[in-house]
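Input record (one chain):
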Amino acid sequence: MSAKKGTAALLAAAVLFLAACQSDGTAGRDAPTGRATGRGGGTPDDRKVSGLRGITLPSWNTDDYSSPEAAGYLRQIAATGARWVTFTPTWYQGRVTDSDLRTTDETADDDSLRHIIGLAHAAGLKTMLKPHVDLVRGGDRAEIRPRDTDAWFAAYERFITHYARLAADTGAEQLAVGTELAGTSGDGRRWRRVIAAVRGRYHGPLTYAANYDEYQKVPFWKDLDVIGIDAYWPLSGKATADVARLRRAWQPITEELAAFAARRDRKILFTEAGYVSQRGTTTAPYSWTISKRAGEDEQAAAYEALLATFAKKPWWAGVCWWMWDDWPDSGETAERLAYTPHGKPAEKVLRRWWSPSSPSGDRG
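The corresponding structure, as predicted from the sequence alone:
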């Protein structure tokens, strides 16, 4: 989910699935260590990319992750039964055609990231670092199409290898090499170069978080360990809290994902999935502002439908929900209408599915 304080980012509406693009580059992983083995089509270590039960804790300011609230948020996340937490440091560029990336006062400070990763590990949570690129004045990062492609990729490589080193230094268990950059993700040659640079600095599992209408066009999945999808598919034409109806809506999507996972020989991780507690959220899960009417029952039904649909799929690697609570004074949506499941029926759904006796896979 495109996230910037003060910006209610709306992603594109649902589109028809596009024909899959065959990847011609590979980068294998050996099972004991997860280290890159170079080209050759090796399969990923499923022990490291399966059973992810996570929640995202995004940051909107430099010191969010070192704030007094950080430890409490992590305890709350762990109490749901989650075993992973995702952190999202963000750099910015001015316009979609620009080539420079920079930090701002909304970029998580490196020391705060080290701090919260340490807190997460102490709370028994594994961590995924999922760096974002956003636009200074808001807008959809999927529209980034730099005028100088070489310069942008050079800047992007500096950005993402910075976090690869930080992930390695802190023992972060997984890293996303990019998020929803549909305007550049079709450039397989340059992205493979970026991925190789990341692997030179970080030896854990890698993914890329493609939007739901982007993933079939990404040509470098076999260079990564798991396919990442931000799973904001619209599921209904009107507001509904009918779990059975929502599960039927997931069925054709599930069939396509199963076939795609088989073709790419990779499991699929929902690097994001989420629903605001607003009436109509299932019609546009990517929208922060679908309605001014509360819809906690619809949010809970959407959580239930997703987990019930995917929990036992052998090709599904898990989900990282968007998102836990906003930091004090930073939320742009009232908590009762926001993505957070905290204190709502959706949190009860998570606790039920993620309890030790749940059917949703291993403990991650």
